[in-house]
Amino acid sequence: MCKYLSFLFLLAFSFHANAQSYTLKGKVLNINTQLPLESATVYITTVKDSTILEYTLTDKNGDFNFAVKKNDKPVFLKVTYVGFETFTEEQKDLTANKDFSNIYLAESTNTLNEVVVKGEAPPIRVKNDTIEYNAALFKVRPDSNVETLLKQLPGLEVDSDGKITANGKEVTQVLVNGKPFFDRDGAMALKNLPAEIINKIQVSDFKTKKEEYSKDQAASDNASINLTIDEEKNKGYFGKFLGGYGTDDRYESSFIVNYFNNNRKISLLGSSNNINAQGFSQDEVFDNMGGGRNSRGSTVNRSQANGITTSNLLGLNYSDELFKDFEVNANYNYTDTHTENINKSNSTNFRPDGNFNTVSESITDNRNNSNKANVELEYKISPSIRLFVAPRFSTSTSESNPQSNSTTTAEDGTLTNDAYSKSENRNESNSFSNSINFNKTFEKRARNLSFVFNNSNNNSNSNNFNQSETNYYITDRQVIRDQNIKNNSISDSYSAEIEYTEPVTDSIRFKIGMEYNFQNNINDNKTYDDIGNDVYTNLNEEQTTYLTSKQNSIAPKAGIRFQKNKFTFDVNSTTSIVQYDNHSFYKGETIDLNKKYVLPFGSAQIRYRIDRSKFFTARYNYSQSLPSASELLPIENVSNTLNTVTGNPNLNPTETHSANINYRNFDFRTRSGYNLYLNSNFYNNDVITTSIYDEDNNRRTSYENISGTYSISAGASWNKSIKQEGNLLRYGIALNANHSFSKGFTNGVLYGAKAIGISPRVYLNYDYGEFFTIAPSYNFSYNETNYDISTLNARSNVVHRLNLQTTSYWPANWIWGNDFGYTYNSINQSFYLWNTSLSYTFLNKAFVAKVKVYDLLNQNQSITRSISTTSVSDNENTVLRRYAMFSLTYKIQNFAGKAPGKNRNTGRGERPEGFGGERRGGPMD
Questions:
Q1: Cα–Cα nearest to 555, from 583, 520, 597
Q2: CA distances from 640 to 417, 625, 643, 700 (A)
Q3: Distance separating alpha carbons of residues 262 and 268, to the nearest angstrom
Q4: pTM for the full model?
Q5: What are the phi and psi torsion angles at 257 (to 5°)?
Q6: How high is the pLDDT of residue 353?
Q7: CA pair distance 242, 548, nearest whole angstrom
Q8: Which residues pair with 786 in a beta bridge?
Q9: C-beta separation of 842 from 890 below 8 A
Q10: Residue 727 gets which letter from DSSP?
Q11: Distance CA 916, CA 782 (A)
């Protein structure tokens, strides 16, 4: 390990000291007001072909200070700022440090959005709260995707899990020309759109449609990325087709075809494989192969997924401007999956009078197919009126045939019970949801009226056949079931909100509103026993229930915002008046629980922008939530022969106090940044389960309110990038920690559990031109739970993960990639996972032949530990093991009649027109 870290530090040091450089500094001022211009872009280009050598942004005092590599040829110093004329001054060479003193910019006679001469755009430009990157000036390898391009941008980070952060903010939305590309999380766009078609990358605060239309400040602390397509590449088609076959009958196939014609964009994609690739997310080195770098963009690491999945997918995306100011975006997805898994579990359940252990095994065979269609309609009725409508439809059918067995023993090894079951299950569900957003702005700045309507309607039907046998050895009894269980579940919800905002002064605005919510849930469960010969007509009243739950609420709300210069303060208050009606029919008896609640909600937020790169945010939120119908209604659920569950009608609403603090800073001058955060949640009347065990370790469960529980998390991260010519070094560290206190209630004994966790991470990425990349990383996590009663011992788990990713692009047309990972888990798991791939591009880069091997050492495993207040469980699942595969990829591309294989003109070969070499004079000259 010491040698490994020494190598990383040596690499960073040698890179930093690779070439002699000189320092350029100065101050940028408004020529009229003499005030400094913050976030002006200062950059150096060659006179010969306008290649950008280095760049930076000015700080809040207008100062800039950056290092530039020695250059014996003439260069331009250029300074741009939105709304001002570009300053240009020629330098004969860069062979010494230089202080430019004061540089004065004059306001442009053009509009604020058209201040840059055509053909000359800086690498980074700040427009109000939006940071815009000129994609053409950030060099990436030919055929790179958008994700590779994002990694080159200062302030943007893409981690091994696919999470994107922009200047410390998590990116939760990625758009293409302002519209979703299949989905808003951007996974499809980042992996499948080529970098060469992108013109600009715009990073801004994430806003809801209501905030966007009302031009209100974003309430969340997340970010949004908008990818704008180069005009020359916004008319044409491109795509690729892939097919592969390997050992153990492993296969993969996929295609994506895109047709762009200005506003009209049509994309069609499909995929079929049996290598656990359930989405459509192709890596340039490993295609759909899971593990390593290709775990990005997935909700789970494919190498650690539960089971082996065969999946088929077909998708269509369409966006267009049907007529002036009326835009449509629609997508459809069909998925079909088949997953087989064997799960082995070893659980210790805590009892004050002695723990017991359960060993179980389950075999599952699940099939699922679904159809999803989403439509977004946006109409700009007038300059002041906007309408947005987004209906969503989905249907799904699932079938499963699980089998399971379990054995439970007391602490002294005495067998208390065992159970066996097998089932045949089928479920069909349909859902429809819709969102309507109407917004009206007025002549008076910040005056706004908005109306939002949402609905969600779901209907699910299941038909299950279950056979089980449970043996209780202490009391010497047996329960055998052979049943048909039919369930119909209906869930409907509607909400309507109207809000009016009135500016009282330039700094103060007041808003009032009203929200109405209606929810209705019906669950009709019927269980029939077998009367012989698989005839299920005998209704089992103990396992037949009919439940309804209805909520009607009206919530008046009010808020005030104070906004002055860099400071924003918000206070919002809501009082929800709820009529909560729950009904059940069980064993011929009707139970009605009808209650009325008055629930207050409140929030406060302080946001302070210290300067363009430094932000401080503090938030507090108070909320209340109601128990569910199953937690309230005092009826017995005996569907599980080892656990009978009964509701508690005396439960109270849960109160939650949430507070968080965040501070982030990214300095474009040094290309380094850090982020600090602290989150906390405190609960009163939290709902927990209470369990009473009999001598057979058969459990009776109910619910209770408890107070005094909490959770706290804190973390920090720091990253830096160093770029010299075509080489790029990025490295960073992160530390996350959490602490929580929860309570358990077992056999009448209430006890507490304090859990702590810590997870540091260190990573480095080095791109050596277009020849190779190397990316080592190390993760460590430690979790421990301590209990406040002496009969329960502390439980802990330690995990080390070491990963090394290498990719070689030499010699030409060859790519050799490796993902090598080592995992150590304190629960007797230690293994290596090595994936490798070798590809060759031929026939004018239209074809790619590839050989790849997954889990070369054949050591992949999946063992996890979960620790709760009442138990600790170790689980092992089926995982994908070693296979080799050969694949062939064919690429097509034609933009505006241009021949395939030609890359875009980045503008580096032409000197921009309209620029001279004079310094604009100022009062100090």
A1: 597
A2: 14, 28, 5, 11
A3: 17
A4: 0.86
A5: -130, 130
A6: 81
A7: 50
A8: 754
A9: no
A10: E
A11: 60
CA distance linking residue 535 with residue 638, whole number of Å = 22
The structure tokens 């300059």 sit at 383
The model's confidence at residue 161, banded by pLDDT at 50, 70 and 90, is: low
Cis geometry, peptide bond prior to residue 811 (ω within 30 degrees of 0): yes
DSSP helix/strand/coil, 10? helix
Q: H/E element holding 148?
A: helix 146-151
Q: How confident is the model at residue 908 (pLDDT cuts 50, 70, 90)?
A: very low
Residue 307 is encoded by which pair of tokens? 């089971």
Judge contact between 701 and 744, C-beta under 8 A: no
Q: Strands (DSSP E) along 295-355, which ranges?
A: 308-323, 326-349
DSSP helix/strand/coil, 725: coil
- d(CA 691, CA 687) in angstroms, rounded, equals 13
From CA 694, how far away is CA 474, in angstroms rounded? 10
Amino acid letter, residue 597: Y
Q: Tokens 């950056």 correspond to what residue?
A: 66
Tokens of 817: 């990639």
Question: N- to C-terminal Cα distance for the chain?
Answer: 58
In the chain, the amino acid numbered 347 is S
* CA atoms of 130 and 113, how far apart (whole Å): 13
Contact in structure between 49 and 909 (CB atoms under 8 Å): yes
d(CA 685, CA 625): 10
The DSSP output letter for 85 is P
Tens digit of each residue's pLDDT (9 = 90 or more) over 541-586: 999 999 999 999 999 999 999 998 889 999 999 999 999 999 999 9
3-class secondary structure per residue, 838-878: EEEEECCCCEEEEEEEECCCCCCCCEEEEECCCEEEEEEEC
Hunting for tokens 């699940």 — which residue is that? 366
Lowest mean pLDDT among 66-80, 121-135, 321-335, 378-392: 121-135
Q: How far apart are the C-alpha atoms of 268 and 237, rounded to whole Å?
A: 11
- Per-residue confidence (pLDDT) for residue 1, from 0 to 100: 46
Contact assessment for residue 710 and residue 741, using Cβ atoms and an 8 Å cutoff? yes
Alpha-carbon distances, residue 554 vs 374, 573, 599, 721 (angstroms): 29, 14, 11, 52
Work out whether the CA dihedral 224, 146, 300, 369 comes out positive or negative.
positive
**Spatial separation of the C-alpha atoms in residues 586 and 878, rounded to whole Å:** 40
Q: What is the pLDDT of residue 5?
A: 47
Q: What is the CA radius of gyration of the chain?
A: 31
pLDDT tens profile 99-140: 999 999 998 875 444 444 444 678 888 877 788 999 888 878
pLDDT band (50, 70, 90) for residue 282: low
Q: Please check whether residue 315 is in contact with residue 331, taking contact to mean a CB–CB distance below 8 angstroms.
A: yes
- Tell me whether residue 171 is exposed, middle or buried, using C-beta atoms within 10 angstroms of its C-beta: 0 to 12, 13 to 18, 19 or more: buried
Residues facing 327 on adjacent strands: 321, 378
- Which residues pair with residue 523 across a beta bridge? 489, 547
Q: How many CB atoms lie within 10 A of CB 337?
A: 16
Q: Can you tell me whether residue 42 is helix, strand or coil? A: strand
Helix (H) or strand (E) holding 436: strand 415-441
Beta strands in 540-652 (DSSP E): 545-564, 567-586, 589-609, 614-625, 636-640, 643-646
